[in-house]
Amino acid sequence: MNIYKLKYTTKAAAEKDLKAKGVYVVTDEGLTYATGIHAVVELGKIITTYGTYDEEGNELTAPIYATGYHYDVMCEQDIDFGSNSIEVTNPKHGFLGHNN
Amino acid sequence: MSLFDDASLVTTPNGYKASKLYSIKPTSGLGDMTVTRATTATRVNSSNVIESVAINVPRLDYTLGSCPSILIEDARTNLVFPSATLTTQTRTVTAVANTLSFYGTGTIVLSGVHTATLTGTGANDRVSLTFTPTAGSLILTVTGTVTNAQLEAGSNASSYIPTVASQLQRNADVISKTGVSSLIGQTEGTIFMDLNFTNVGVDKYIMVINNTANTNSIAIRRRSTGVIRVLLTAPGSVGTTNESSAVLADGNYKIAYKYISGEIKLFINGAISFSLNGTFTFGAAIENIKLGMSNSNSEQLNDTIKSLQLYTTALDDDQCIDLTN
Questions:
Q1: pTM score, two decimals?
Q2: CA distances from A24 to A12, A20, B17, B76, B88 (A)
Q3: Facing residues of B51 across strands?
Q4: CA angle at A29 for the pair B244 and B174, rounded to the nearest 5°
Q5: Chain A residues contacting B, CB < 8 Å?
Q6: 3-state class of A13 per DSSP?
Q7: B170: which chain A residues are within 8 Å (Cβ-Cβ)?
């Protein structure tokens, strides 16, 4: 099983690449996983430092985001995502029973 | 002869191994279900303890009592960590139904994009709260003992997903069988299921039998309105019947759906639920079984199944009543 950590500039760019790489396929039922794809997790913008809020929920300091728009893909096949595939040392998301 | 003798397929929470859920009938192995779940997961075992279940292993869960049931859930991610003993934290949520759950006697106060309080009732009791926040940062302020905590997008608390240092996803349970047209009634038949029914306000699939193209099928769903709805699609003749039961309360139900051209009936717990006289002919071999999910391996039941039985004949009404009593 392969787990890819992916980073794109935008969600639109990600969806375009995921379709181009055969992760997503378009069927009568809409956008679905291709054969061999077990999970596509849209993490989106990742917060590196959470904002702070008062007791009523008003923002005191804004959250700080990492650059890019992020996905995790779990699949059986090898896929070359090129420079969109990244290594992370402090993952914000993982799959139960897997190390990354 | 008993009804068991007449069944072409009997699947119960019995024997299993990785990637397989054995069926009692047929004994040839033809009806053994294929199980896929590319992550580990947890279940409540016979000692009432939450334990990890390996990748691709079906989950025989004892939450409802001393007899196991097959637990079938969709993919979920536990957003809070570490879950074993929760501490105060802030997490990003989206504007969909989210469910917070935990064991223990502590309290979680939610603030930020949603305001609420969830208070525990005991070390062995799981409490839960389903809410729809606005998108953004949800602050969870923890006091007291909060163990096995889980915050997940979804309208029910799913099985526990233990986290340590990051959010973790449990993949969906996918239980199916292909190429078993000999076990499925092609012109007539009966589908029996014993399952737990918990209305979580969204549509979920109980089971589907179909051809590979899914142009001919019988799909049994649990609708968001609390009814069981059966869709029979047979475009080779009249077409489609789509009929619902009355609204059902949460609980355990035995259902039998018999189908033969001119007579289609659903029985629930020993009583007839609906009866139709539409005619139909399947235009292709019905050869696949999807247990607790849709044809596209999604919309999992998020509940438990005790038994699936298929018959290649339409049982008579008295037999269906006996079967579901």
A1: 0.92
A2: 13, 8, 30, 19, 37
A3: B43
A4: 75
A5: 1, 27, 29, 32, 38-39, 41, 47, 50-51, 53, 55-57, 63, 72, 74, 90-98
A6: helix
A7: 96
The one-letter amino acid at B141: T
Question: Across the interface, which of B139, B166, B298 has its CB nearest the CB of A91?
Answer: B166
pLDDT tens track for B6-55: 999 999 998 999 999 999 999 999 999 999 999 999 999 999 999 999 99
DSSP B85: B
Contacts of A90 in chain B (CB under 8 A): 166
**Cβ-Cβ contacts under 8 Å, A72 against chain B:** 169
User: Which residue type, as a one-letter code, is found at position B284?
Assistant: A
Reported ipTM exceeds the 0.90 cut: no
Query: Could you tell me if B36 and B56 are in contact, meaning their C-beta atoms sit under 8 angstroms apart?
Result: yes
Whether B169 and A53 lie within 8 Å, measured CB to CB? no
Please give the Cα distance from A61 to B90 (Å, whole number).
13
* Nearest one of B242, B188, B253 to B219, comparing CA atoms: B242
What are the structure tokens assigned to B265, written together?
């009936």
Name the token pair of B73. 């859930």
d(CA B166, CA A6): 17
Q: Are B309 and B7 in contact (CB under 8 A)?
A: yes
